[in-house]
């Protein structure tokens, strides 16, 4: 949200007050609190009739500093809040009379607050300034017709790049963008996002989390071009600064606080095949797809049933459509006998015709309005309501309905939707602030389903395929990129979204091979197949057309076989990488900037990525087959054709559909797994 009209003026309807200087400070156990009036205090009368902004500093973990900016302290706490893991450290609080400053230190990260002169807080890592809050950074704004907001601006250095803020499909480097943290079902070609995370990662080696589950607004060098501004509605703003030195170290510290992905089952890394969405399918169709893949020697790991495994107008009632699936247990048994796992689509919306609607209404498990009525909508399913996951009994009730599907033999769930959550006239069971619950709803939904799978299938066997998320959602993997078009442009959009998400603390990411909307050109499908099978998780899925390769041409069959086999060869390497994800939070798919932060050429790259630490992937996004890519310093070997290349330079190559830019670092396990004895020392 923008409050100013250029440097000098405010926008119409906005009043803005800023802390002028530190008036006094206090130390409360392990907390430092500074109080800053909005004007300089020159005489006793200046203390009257003006706000004081209080800023507190705490150390929730080593190398992390939490900041709270507050105007009125008496307002009720807005819930929900992110579930952050504390491991408090005793900070060092030292006052430097000569420098007229006070320092608050957590590990190697220090906040240095100026006690004289204009407002100034510098955040330092090992004594070097990372970013600063300056005299125009903190603002307490009143916006006509909307109420109060609090904002902070942290300085941007020359050449500094900002990444993250969830799965965003625009430019990978966020500088110059205005970004609202607000989950929405907007596809992959707009500024909206399914997975909004108020965390950003800087190329200078620090991260910032705005600790607010509600609508955080970011101006990344787009209001003050020399700062990243973030604002929230209300009387207080919380944020945390994460030191780290390198992006991967910052992610390690951030995920220690916000949660790390658990171990995933080995079978989840194989190829998933879907019915697609609105296509016609029944038991015969499903078995023909599965048997067709086997007949063509394409290894398959999971079969997914999308929405119409249930009857239309009944989503979600978790009852198989008897017209198309008269014997679901028998069908699942046949799929298991073929060595496959089974996934089914679900969402948290309960249609009026679902038999669960009346039951949920009677028990008080559906979201209600402030007037006491059940909230309903016709958008998606006729008369649908929402499960109120803020009620633990409602969450347990919902999980119990899924339990019957696990008895049928279902192994995983695709947890779709969760973004269209109302905020006007809503009363949540636990009294949650509707503005904060909007983004957080999906967190409760995915947690309910994931924890059910952990209880029933055991640790290391649970997996969901989730579309929406917010901060901390990485604890309930895996997430996929949502509804993209079936074009080269949409494929590149999807990759940018995935790299932004994995820059936001998420360890795994997937996307619909071939695109979702429309039917891809056969060449696009083949190019997307290579990209999809060199992602952490790989799923064939579409909207109104099938994604079995023979629906396109024989060459598509060959390409799919080749890249499925390639991923199988890489599986030990991927599993080792995934073990690291569980321990440190390092994502399996990561940007070049994350893996090679010291190489300035890597900072803007968003058409290539690293699959683990040693495999560079540059998908083909051009009809010509041409790829322009950058290889960092070192020796690299192409995984398919064996080309050996010295890095530290840009390359241009043209590939047929059986290849793409995929290089491994010389001498690494990934290279040995794929090329074996051909690898040179």
Automatic annotation (TrEMBL):
As its record notes, the protein acts as a catalyst of: Hydrolysis of terminal, non-reducing alpha-D-xylose residues with release of alpha-D-xylose
Q: Which InterPro entries match?
A: Alpha-glycosidase_related, Gal_mutarotase_sf_dom, GH, Glyco_hydro_31_C, Glyco_hydro_31_N_dom, Glyco_hydro_31_TIM, Glyco_hydro_b
Question: What keywords is this UniProt entry annotated with?
Answer: Glycosidase, Hydrolase
Top-rank taxon of the source lineage equals Bacteria
Glycoside hydrolase family 31 TIM barrel domain ranges (all copies):
261-575
Listed GO biological process terms: carbohydrate metabolic process
* SUPFAM superfamilies on file: (Trans)glycosidases, Galactose mutarotase-like, Glycosyl hydrolase domain
All residue ranges annotated as the Glycosyl hydrolase family 31 C-terminal domain in the record: 585-668
Question: Recorded E.C. number(s)?
Answer: 3.2.1.177
The Gene Ontology terms for molecular function here are: alpha-D-xyloside xylohydrolase; carbohydrate binding
Where's the Glycoside hydrolase family 31 N-terminal domain?
A: 55-219
The enzyme's main class, written as a single word, is hydrolase
Q: Identify its protein family.
A: Belongs to the glycosyl hydrolase 31 family.
Q: What is this protein called?
A: alpha-D-xyloside xylohydrolase
UniProt organism field: Brachybacterium ginsengisoli
The top of its lineage is: Bacteria, Bacillati, Actinomycetota, Actinomycetes, Micrococcales
């Amino acid at each position: 949200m923008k409050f100013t009209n250029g440097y000098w003026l405010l926008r119409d309807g906005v009043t803005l007050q800023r802390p002028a200087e530190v008036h006094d400070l206090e130390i409360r156990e392990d907390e430092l609190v500074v109080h800053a009036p909005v004007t300089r205090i020159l005489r006793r009368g200046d203390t009257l009739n003006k706000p004081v902004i209080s800023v507190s500093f705490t150390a929730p973990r080593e190398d992390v500093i939490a900041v709270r900016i507050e105007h009125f302290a008496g307002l009720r706490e807005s819930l929900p809040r992110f579930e952050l893991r504390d491991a408090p450290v005793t900070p060092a609080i030292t006052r430097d009379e000569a420098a007229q400053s006070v320092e608050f230190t957590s590990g190697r990260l220090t906040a240095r607050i100026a006690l004289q002169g204009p407002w100034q807080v510098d955040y330092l890592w090992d004594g070097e300034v990372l970013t600063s809050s300056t005299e125009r950074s903190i603002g307490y704004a009143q916006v006509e017709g909307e109420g109060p907001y609090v904002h902070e601006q942290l300085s941007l250095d020359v050449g500094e790049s900002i990444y993250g803020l969830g799965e965003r499909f625009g430019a990978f480097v966020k500088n110059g963008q205005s970004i609202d943290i607000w989950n929405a079902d907007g596809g992959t070609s707009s500024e909206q996002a399914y997975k909004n995370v108020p965390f950003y990662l800087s190329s200078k080696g620090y991260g910032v989390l705005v600790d607010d589950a509600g609508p955080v607004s970011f101006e990344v060098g787009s209001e003050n071009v020399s700062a990243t501004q973030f604002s929230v509605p209300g009387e207080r703003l919380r944020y945390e600064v994460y030191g780290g030195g390198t992006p991967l170290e910052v992610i390690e510290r951030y995920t220690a606080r916000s949660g790390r992905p658990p171990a995933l089952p080995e079978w989840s890394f194989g190829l998933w095949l879907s019915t697609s969405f609105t296509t016609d399918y029944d038991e015969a169709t499903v078995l023909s797809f599965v048997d067709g893949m086997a007949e063509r020697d394409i290894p398959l790991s999971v079969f997914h049933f999308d929405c119409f495994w249930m009857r239309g107008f009944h989503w979600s009632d978790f009852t198989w459509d008897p017209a198309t699936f008269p014997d679901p247990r028998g069908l699942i048994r046949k799929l298991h006998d073929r060595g496959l796992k089974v996934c089914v689509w679900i969402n948290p919306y309960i249609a009026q015709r679902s038999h669960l609607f009346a039951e949920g209404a009677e028990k008080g498990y559906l979201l209600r309005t402030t007037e006491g009525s059940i909230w309903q909508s016709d958008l998606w399913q006729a008369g649908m309501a929402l499960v109120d996951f803020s009620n633990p009994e409602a969450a347990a009730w919902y999980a119990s309905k899924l339990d019957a599907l696990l008895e049928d033999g279902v192994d995983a769930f695709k947890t779709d939707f969760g973004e269209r959550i109302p905020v006007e006239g809503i009363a949540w069971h636990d009294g949650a602030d509707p503005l904060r619950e909007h983004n957080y709803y999906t967190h409760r939904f995915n947690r309910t389903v994931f924890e059910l799978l952990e209880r029933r299938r055991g640790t290391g066997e649970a997996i969901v395929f989730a579309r929406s998320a917010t901060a901390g959602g990485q604890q309930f993997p895996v997430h996929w990129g949502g509804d993209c078009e079936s074009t080269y442009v949409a494929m590149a959009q999807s990759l940018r979204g995935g790299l932004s998400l994995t820059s936001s603390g998420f360890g795994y990411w997937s996307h619909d091979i071939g695109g979702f909307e429309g039917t891809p050109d056969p060449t696009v499908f083949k190019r997307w197949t290579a990209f999809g099978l060199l992602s952490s998780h790989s799923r064939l899925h579409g909207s109104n057309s099938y994604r079995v390769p023979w629906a396109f041409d024989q060459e598509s069959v060959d390409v799919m076989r080749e890249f499925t086999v390639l991923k199988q060869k890489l599986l030990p390497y991927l599993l080792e990488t995934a073990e690291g994800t569980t321990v440190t939070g390092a994502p399996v798919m990561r940007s070049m900037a994350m893996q090679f932060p010291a190489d300035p050429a890597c900072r803007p790259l968003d058409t290539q990525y690293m699959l683990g630490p040693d495999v560079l992937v540059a998908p083909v996004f051009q009809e010509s087959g041409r790829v322009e890519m950058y290889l960092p310093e070192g020796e690299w070997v192409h995984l398919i054709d064996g080309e050996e290349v010295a890095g530290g330079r840009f390359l241009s190559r043209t590939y047929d559909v059986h290849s793409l830019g995929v290089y491994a670092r010389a001498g690494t396990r990934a290279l040995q797994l794929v090329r074996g004895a051909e690898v040179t020392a």
